[in-house]
Every structure is written in C-alpha cells, then in structure tokens.
Amino acid sequence: MFGLENQPYIMFKNSLEFAKKCDASDELASFRNKFHIPKNTAGEELVYLCGNSLGLQPKATSDYIQQELKDWANLGVEGHTEGKNPWLPYHEFLTENMAKIVGAKPSEVVIMNGLTSNLHLMMVSFYQPTSSKYKIVIESDAFPSDKYAMESQLKFHGYNPSEGLILWKPRKGEELCRLEDLEDIMKKNGDEIALLMIGSTNYYSGQSFPLKKITELGHRYNCKVGFDLAHGAGNIQPNLHETGPDFAVWCTYKYLNSGPGSLGGCFVHERHENNKELKRFVGWWGHNKQTRFNMRHKFDVLVGAEGWQLSNPPILSMAAIRASLDTFTEAGFDNLRAKAIKLTGFLEFLVDDLHDDRINIITPRNPEERGCQLSIQVKSADKSLHTQLTEAGVISDWREPDVIRIAPAPLYNSFEDVYHFAERLKKVLN
Predict the structure, then answer these.
(1) Residue range 286-334, pLDDT digits in tens
(2) Contact at 8 Å (CB) between 146 and 199?
(3) Chain-centroid distance, C-alpha 269
(4) Dihedral, CA atoms, 100, 38, 228, 172, nearest 10 degrees?
(5) Is the separation of the CB atoms in 37 and 45 below 8 Å?
(6) Residue 353: which H helix or E strand, with range?
(7) CA–CA dist 399, 397 (Å, integer)
(8) Could you give the angle at which helices 16-24 and 415-429 cross, rounded to 10 degrees?
(9) Labelling 178: which of 125, 200, 366, 424 has CA 20 to 30 A away?
(10) Which has the closest alpha carbon to 410: 311, 331, 348?
C-alpha cells in the first residue's frame, strides 16, 4: 500500500493488466509520445530507465535547433537581433520555466556553462575562508567531481584537503546519511566551517536531503550553504528561494533532457543580488546589457544571477534546453512529481515482491526523501548482472560495487516500463 498526505492510498498489484490500467488513467501518458524511445535492432522499444544519467530526446528538439540553424544560414550575424528568437537575449527565454522547476525567482536563475565550472564560479564568491574558518562539509559519497572541486579549492587557498574537507558519512552498516550526524559535525566544528556544499539528491543512494533544514543549520553557524542539484533539478522540487541557500548549481542533461554535455544552471539567492562588492570572476556577458557593446566602459555587473555570466552562450545547446523546458511547462511540474511518486512506488512494490534475499533497496522508503531513482543493491553480484539486463532490453545504470540505479522519469516512462523491468530482473536473477 502506498500513500502521501492529501492523496488517496493505492493498492498496487503485480500484473501487466494493473500496469496498463495505471497508464490508461495517467493524464501525462501522452507525453511519452513527445520523446524518441530507443529501440533494439528488431525495432522494439527498449525499457529505458536511465534518465538519471541521460534524459531522452524530446521530438521537438530537432525543430528548435533547426530554427536557429536556419536563422544562422539566412541571417548570419544579424541573427543576434533579427532572428525569430534573437540570440542576444536567448538565455532569457529559458529563465522563467527553469525558475519554476527549481522553485526560484527568475532573477535568481541563469543557464550557463557546465555544472562544475559553475560550482567553481560560485566558490569564488561564496567560499571566503579565513585562517580560523576555512573547512568545507560535503557528503562522503558525493559525486566525485564535487569532491575534486572542493579539494582543489582548498588547495588553491593554501589548505590541506585532508584537514579542510569534512565528510558527512552514513553510520557503520548503513547507506544513508542522518541529519543528526550533520548537526553533530556542526556542533563540534561549526566555528571552523566556512561552507556546506551538499548534493541535494545523492547520485548513488538516491537519498534526497532536507534542504531547508541543512540551510538553516549552516546559516546558524555563519556558514555559506550551496547545493548540487545535478540529480535534483527536474526530479524533486527544491524550492530554492524559500529554502534559502546562498547558491545552487545543476546540469540539464539528466532529468531535464537537454542532450549530452549540455549547459548547466545556476541559482544565486536574491539577498546577494545587489552586492556588487561580492568577489567573483567576471566576463562581458555579466556586464550591464545597455552598455555591453560599448567596449570602453568599466565593468558594471548585472543584478541577479545573470551577473555571474562570462561569455555569450552556445545557442544550439540552449535551443535543446528550451525544447525540454517547454515540455516540462506543458506537463506541469507538480503533476510530474505526483506521477513520479506513484511510478517509483510501483517500482518499489515490484522489487519487494520478488522476495529475493539478495536484493536490498538502499534508497529511502519515504517518498519525501527520494526522487525518481531507486538504488537496488544486489548482494554478491557484479557488472555481469547489469550486462544481462542490458541484453534483456533494459537500459539502466550500474555503480560499483553492486548497485543498479533505476530511475523511471515521469515525462516519458510508463507503469508498463516499470513492470517489464521487474519481470526481466526476476528472469536474470533466476
């Protein structure tokens, strides 16, 4: 049985008929037709449950990109001002929809650069260590790039990462981090900690952290707080403005379906928007739009997140992001989140119903503490299990040493997808 506050309880059934009934009553089911679903050599659709690694391509993406290629071909440089979607303000076409997805004000959000580049830019502004307050807290199993970035920032400022980086770890024998353990870290080390830099949703375990509580905890000890939403944006609703971190960064190619290596996003809370004295690395695209092309002016930083921009943006990448964000807006993020909870709940039910002692779901059971992803630990397994699943027509993600990450994305995945995954997993295990 499954339920959430203000939602009726649903009794799941382990049958293809039940899955099809769920899809038939799903108001978002038609959005699947708006995406290209990968197929095998026989032309049969694969069970694609890997949107936490790379989202599928919206069918509209080609048209959005072709429009910009057409304007480039027909207008050349005049496309910056005369194109159907002028390139000079193109990033502004993305801002409002992106802000809704992360729960921010439009002035607090900008699409630019890649995730780790944005993380370093944010660190320039919000990691201001002193001789006595310089340490950084990060979850112990954070995505490696975040850990590398933190270590390099510590080294850049002259600190030893082994002393300056504090890891928020699960307890022995557990897979998930406890908030009370982070509270203990702050009690013991708060006077020495300059920054809490936490992944909103852990890439490995699928655990979503209580962002508002973490933000309030960090600010209580006069620390800056930032979040990596790589596995959160388009998956959970972080409500960034209300939650109140100083900054956040994310990519757009996972749940936001913008294509491999596409641009990232950045949030800076509005309380910082008028602080022109805040240290930052700058470039001309962060300069006052009214005088940007008068090359003789002293740098005049833009208000809000736009002020952290460096260079004019890659339009073709932004066109792909725009295609996906428009699809999100059409579906409605609250609707998508409600479907995601049911889809993931059905997946959890089916995996439990395998009654296989080798299987352990390490992702939190509480839907409020996770997004779409379930991390399924299979004892004594190795990557050959994942290979067999792939051969059975399931596209998923393997993480060493023994975890399969499964992420049913509500924009294009169905209840039938989830059912077929469970059946194929059962067959492979047997």
Answers:
(1) 999 999 988 888 999 999 999 999 999 999 999 999 999 999 999 999 9
(2) yes
(3) 18
(4) 130
(5) yes
(6) none
(7) 7
(8) 160
(9) 125
(10) 331
Q: Which two tokens stand for residue 274?
A: 């008028």
**Bridging pattern class, strands 359-361 and 247-251:** unpaired
Match 């890439």 to its residue by tokens.
203
What is the C-alpha separation between 38 and 24, in angstroms, rounded? 22
User: For residue range 21-30, what is the model confidence (pLDDT) as tens digits?
Assistant: 999 999 999 9
pTM across the whole model: 0.94
Domains and CATH numbers, the chain: 16-59+332-429 (3.90.1150.10), 89-328 (3.40.640.10)
Q: What is the helix, strand, coil percentage profile of the chain, to 5?
A: 40, 15, 40
Quote the CA–CA distance of 8 and 252 in Å, as a whole number.
33
Q: Residue 203 — φ and ψ, nearest 5°?
A: -65, -30
Return the axis-axis angle of helices 179-189 and 211-220, rounded to nearest 10°. Answer: 10
CB 49 within 8 A of CB 407: yes
Please, is 139 exposed, middle or buried when counting C-beta atoms within 10 Å of its C-beta (0-12, 13-18, 19+)?
buried
